[in-house]
Specification:
The chain has about 375 residues and is mostly helical. The chain folds into 3 domains: about 60 residues, no CATH class; about 130 residues, Serine Threonine Protein Phosphatase 5, Tetratricopeptide repeat (Alpha Horseshoe), CATH 1.25.40; about 110 residues, no CATH class. It is about 65% helix and about 10% strand. It starts with a strand and ends with a helix. This is Golgi to ER traffic protein 4 homolog.
Length: about 375
Amino acid sequence: MLLVAFFSYVFVDGFEKIPVMYTFEACNDLKLISTKTPLHGKTELDLSEEEGDIMSRERPRRATLPPAEENIKKLENVINEGNYYGAQQMYKSISARYVSAQRHSEALDILHSGACFQLKNGQVTCGSELAVIYVETLVKAKVPYGDDVLDRIRKIYKTFPQIPLPQDLGEDDDMQQLNEALGAAKIHVDCCLSFLRAAIKWSAEFGAHRNGSPELHVMLAEYVYSESPELDMTRVSYHFVRGNNLKKFASALVNFMGKCYPGEDDLAIARAILMYLAMGNLRDANFLMDELKKHDLPQSDLIQLVNYLLPTLQRDALPLFNMLRTNYRSSTDREPAFKELLDDIAELFYGVQRKNPLQGMFGDIFKMMG
């Protein structure tokens, strides 16, 4: 038999720290055979009872937390005093206590309030951090996707500030002002992206569409389009095609056509249509094109290809599809991703297997935008 002993400390009556020696018998497992308190002469029975009392006092203390509303009001007062950083640390630590006590609903209330209140006060980094923790808590609590939670996420999203860029620039001071505004806008977009990406991932895992909530994809696309200082229409389109608001997507494309560089407009239109088709969504591809045709579209080979491609995919016409790819290859070569999109379309609509399985990287590339 092997005896193992070690010292530890316990608190008696809430204050007095006394040393305790624990002795274990080590066989196949550890069996506690005695406890001694050499400096205080307490018996094993006395110590056991005291430890039991201490543990019984600790349990309710750990679970005894005030209603969340009390902490929410206190934390809002801290923010109103201008102590944003201090409030941030308190939001994180207090909400963590509610999570530890399995009071997830109240933890979510605190985090939601904190995210909105920090954002309303212009504290985008702090607010977005709490927003991300809010989503992480949804995951921990296994909260299912539903309208109530979606409304709360939408409320946080709408609280993200928008920064109008200065106009009529001329002086050096104006350029400095522009650079500051561009830097702030980039931070805002990155913060909002982090929050909405996390929310989309949660929604996909807990009950929404396998690609994530269409409503959340629309929110992300809208914010990137309206607020990004360096507009990435590929990212915007990626999320709009996974959304459920074709009118907004069409409006964004029309607006983009009015301000983009020459040659970018037809690329944006073709990209949007091909993305829908690569997902097998011929209906929305046709609807989007019909909406865009209400406006003046650029005259180009890419637009011709799209106009021919849509009716072709409505029937069994693989030879015609291949002919279109061949005849318009010089146009589709303008963007490398178009080849992958067309390969996806051929596989979905006509069962054409890829010659090289490694070619199917389009999905993985675009997942980086999710």
